[in-house]
Amino acid sequence: MMKLKRLIFMSAVILIITAFYAYSREEIPTIDNIVFDHPQRSAAVFDHDDHNEKAMLEDDCSICHHVYENKKLIKDESSEDYLCSECHFLKPTPENAIPLRMAFHKQCKECHFESNKGPVLCGECHIKK
Amino acid sequence: MHSFINFIMGPMVWISFLIFFIGVIFRFFQVIKLVNERENFIYTYMSFKYSFRSIFAWLIPFLPVSTRKSPVFYGISYVFHLLLFLIPIFLLSHVALLEESMQWSWFTMNDAVADILTLIVIFSLLFFIIRRIVVPEVNFLTKLSDFGFILIVALPFVTGFLAYHQFFAYQWMVIVHVLSGELMIILIPFTRFFHMFMAPFTRAYTGSEFGSVRHAKDW
């Protein structure tokens, strides 16, 4: 009987601790996926400033927020006032051959592969809640 | 870890398909050679008419008499074989990766639909395992390797399902998923999986023999 009581008590404690941990864990910021109609995956985790600080990308915003003219990358110009979806559309178009999903995936994953750091598998960015 | 993942999701995919294609060609030559050496009399009665008549008859669910005698097994088998191809070809994550590396892209099914279809495949495989254990006439003909082949097919579906839901050991689940898928592609030409190519020919052969020699239907 003592054993059973102790078991129930311990289980309750563990349950409360995990529940508390789950709720108190701060939400990781994500990239808005509203432009995709009927998004199929959870929004990708990306803590903008924290990410760029850790990855040491703060000096050059144009690595991600780039500017193109006639399909040529314009160096030293940046487009951080635009969303990616203002230039990359859901389907490839004559002005922009890189559709939006691919634009995100290529930009994020190529750099992660090159730097041997950062997520590269679906579920490492699209984390299930 | 990144370069390993890059390798198995990149070059290894193409290496697997290369082995697959070379293997298929090699096996076809081998089979043709064997027929020429041992049974070249079959050419005397091979007939296009009876071949295609038989192939089409067997493509129609529940037309052949033997399939009607065990409708549950053939029904599950039919759905299973269809899904075995439909799911991987039209899966969003597969097409998305192919689009990123090759700019190839086609229709994809909804992830939630794929999830349910995958469960159907897994349960079909469970059914095949149980059938081999409990049905005496099937059990009698079953070798240990038969279970091995079922497990090889099951592995990519089970790990894909578990990875999609991110239940546990996510990274390893994906790695085993990718490797087991590649293993299956490589094994197709060299194992029983080769029946996916031989089936129409064995059907044509039986159809021709029944049609031209025995003057009977083979379904």
Which tags fit this structure?
heterodimer, A: Cytochrome C3, B: 219 residues, mainly alpha, Fumarate Reductase Cytochrome B subunit, 11 helices, globular
What report would you give on this structure?
- The complex is a heterodimer of chains A (about 130) and B (about 220).
- Chain A is mainly alpha-helical and about 130 residues long.
- Chain A has a single domain, classed as Cytochrome C3 (Alpha-Beta Complex), CATH 3.90.10.
- Chain A is about 40% helix and about 5% strand.
- Chain A is built from four helices and two strands; from the N terminus they run H-H-E-E-H-H.
- Chain A has helices spanning about 1-25, 50-55, 100-115, 120-125, and strands at about 70, 70-75.
- Chain A has a two-stranded antiparallel sheet with strand order 1-2.
- In chain A, strand 1 (about 70) and strand 2 (about 70-75) form a beta hairpin.
- Chain A is elongated, with a radius of gyration of 21 Å.
- Chain A starts with a helix and ends with a helix.
- The relative contact order of chain A is 0.11.
- The mean pLDDT of chain A is about 90.
- With about 220 residues, chain B is an all-alpha fold.
- Chain B has a single domain (about 1-215), classed as Fumarate Reductase Cytochrome B subunit (Up-down Bundle).
- Chain B is globular, with a radius of gyration of 20 Å.
- The termini of chain B are far apart.
- At the A-B interface, helix 3 and helix 4 of A face helix 1, helix 6, helix 9 and helix 10 of B.
